[in-house]
Design brief:
Layout: H1 2-30, E1 60-67, E2 73-83, E3 88-95, E4 102-109, H2 123-126, E5 136-137, H3 144-152, H4 156-159, E6 171-176, E7 185-193, E8 196-205, H5 212-217, H6 230-244, H7 269-284, E9 302-303, H8 311-333
Parallel strand pairs: 5-9
Antiparallel strand pairs: 1-2, 2-3, 3-4, 6-7, 7-8
């Protein structure tokens, strides 16, 4: 009887020790798990050297100063993101000491479609960002200042302008069509400097936010198989207004088309209507936006290639890079 009781006590003790070991081992295995069940790296939670506070900055995930062995700042790295086609697109953008020159762009994460948006990971695509100036923009979406820079590169004889007969007030004037035409809503932006029109940008977007200028450039909005693209024709109309400082002289037939501007076969009535409205605003100065560039900005930006067939992804890339630029440019200016 005594032996049986002793054996029972020993067995109970062994079971207790095994159970304790199992519980302890389980805790040891899970001590590095986060609340989501994913493993966390305690070291990753430590502050990164040179880190910059990004609290309250929408779209900015992290930022840090890059330094050399002596501790001198050699540049900046900003991790930012924006919504793409299938989810958030996150990039790390590195800048030079001027907080404007882009030294490189790296894809951190995305959920874009293989063969389309996911092509942003291609080295050839990312290489275009090395050494360019922020902000960036897609073809056909150049800011007025960039249009001015492009015009300034042309021969003087071709770009000489005379002020309009009616004095125009300096500023940027934007007008929109009252209604969409065949699913596209037109917008025209006109810039006046020193009393003369220096930039005209005409474009139209559908409900998905896709612009005719971009779609025509990548072959998704064709006018003809061999003729000028919609964007090229829109640019030709804009050049006419800049050269003549008005829409006068553009003869329109019963189909809304013109032979006045070479190479233009699209309907021009919508363009003329918006251009005249913008010129009328410029004559009065009503609704003018400041024409000056942002203080401290020495460049109008750089046009980049879109990811072919991936409009939403391309827009997310532009938005992300420009968010990173705006944040770090403001930080460096302090």
């Amino acid at each position: 009887m005594k032996d049986n009781r002793l054996k029972g006590i020993i067995a109970l003790a062994v079971v207790t020790v095994i159970s304790f070991g199992a519980v302890y081992g389980s805790k040891a295995l899970t001590k590095d798990k986060g609340t989501s069940g994913e493993e966390t790296n305690p070291a990753a939670e430590e502050p990164v050297e040179g880190s910059i506070d990004v609290s309250g900055q929408e779209g900015i995930d992290a930022a840090r100063e890059l330094t050399d062995a002596s501790g001198a700042v050699t540049g900046y790295a900003v991790t930012a993101g924006a919504k793409g086609f299938a989810g958030k697109v996150t990039l790390e953008v590195t800048f030079g000491t001027d907080a404007q020159t882009i030294n490189g762009v790296k894809v951190v994460s995305h959920h874009e479609t293989e063969g389309f948006g996911a092509n942003m990971e291609n080295e050839d695509y990312l290489a275009q960002f090395n050494g360019i100036s922020a902000p960036v923009y897609l073809p056909g979406n150049a800011p007025a200042a960039a249009k001015k820079d492009e015009t300034a590169k042309e021969p003087a004889a071709e770009t000489a302008k005379e002020p309009a007969s009616t004095e125009l007030k300096d500023g940027v004037y934007t007008v929109k069509a009252d209604a969409a035409d065949q699913g596209y809503l037109s917008t025209l932006t006109l810039k006046v400097e020193n009393g003369a029109v220096t930039s005209v940008v005409w474009d139209a977007a559908n409900e998905l936010g896709e612009y005719k200028s971009y779609l025509s450039t990548v072959g998704e909005y064709k006018m003809t198989d061999n003729g000028p693209t919609w964007k090229e024709q829109a640019d030709a109309l804009a050049a006419y207004v800049i050269e003549n400082q008005s829409t006068e002289g553009i003869a329109v037939d019963e189909n809304g088309k013109t032979d006045t501007v070479a190479g233009v076969s699209i309907s021009v009535e919508g363009f003329i209507d918006l251009a005249e409205k913008a010129l009328k605003l410029a004559a009065s100065g009503e609704g003018a936006e400041a024409a000056e560039e942002t203080a401290g900005t020495s460049s109008a930006g750089t046009e980049i290639d879109a990811v072919s067939g991936a409009t939403f992804t391309s827009n997310a890339i532009v938005e992300t890079i420009n968010k990173a630029y705006e944040f770090i440019h403001a930080y460096a200016a302090k």
